[in-house]
Amino acid sequence: MNERAWYVVQTYSGCENAAKKNIERRIESMDMSDLIFRVLVPEIVQTERKKNGELKEVLVKPYPGYVFIDMIVTDESWFMVRNTPMVTGFLGSSGGGAKPVPLSEEEITPILKMCGISTGKEFAGNVGDRVRIVTGAFAHQEGIIDFIDNQKGTVRVLIYAFGRATPAELSFNEITLL
Predict the structure, then answer these.
(1) Distance from CA of residue 9 to its chain's centroid?
(2) For the segment 16-49, what is each residue's pLDDT rounded down to a tens digit?
(3) CATH 2.30.30.30 residue spans of the chain
(4) Burial tier of 43 (Cβ tally within 10 Å: 0-12, 13-18, 19+)
(5) What is the CATH code of the structural domain delimited by 130-177?
(6) 136-155 per-position pLDDT tens digit
(7) Which class is domain 4-114?
């Protein structure tokens, strides 16, 4: 069975955010939120000196031309991402129908930490903390942590809609603390 892992997708340089938006739109329209969990374009803040001597903070992409995707590779999800506008292919796929090679834990952990994202090994939140869901059917919704399972790397979040609480089990990577 295919396992969930992080993969690197190549894009046209300078089009990383456009590729990310295109992938996210297709995830929603093709109902692939159960296979593709997160699309990430790493950005870091750097301070640059302008010509007049003033300091200015700018967002810099440390990996230009690349988008990172947390997904389960199936024929459908692989095809969908590969054929998204602005995407040129998967890194580590030799072509000819060969599936891409996932990033190892040692490769993705520093990238996630640089972006301030939990690696799934430890969770900084507690029961009762407010979170925002970043992917899936409940994306952009807020909820409250009801239960944390560090061994499975999941949390149960109560999402309040229509006057009642709906529980949802999510991985650490699918939420951010508020």
Answers:
(1) 12
(2) 999 999 999 999 999 998 899 889 998 888 888 8
(3) 130-177
(4) middle
(5) 2.30.30.30
(6) 778 888 999 998 877 667 88
(7) alpha beta
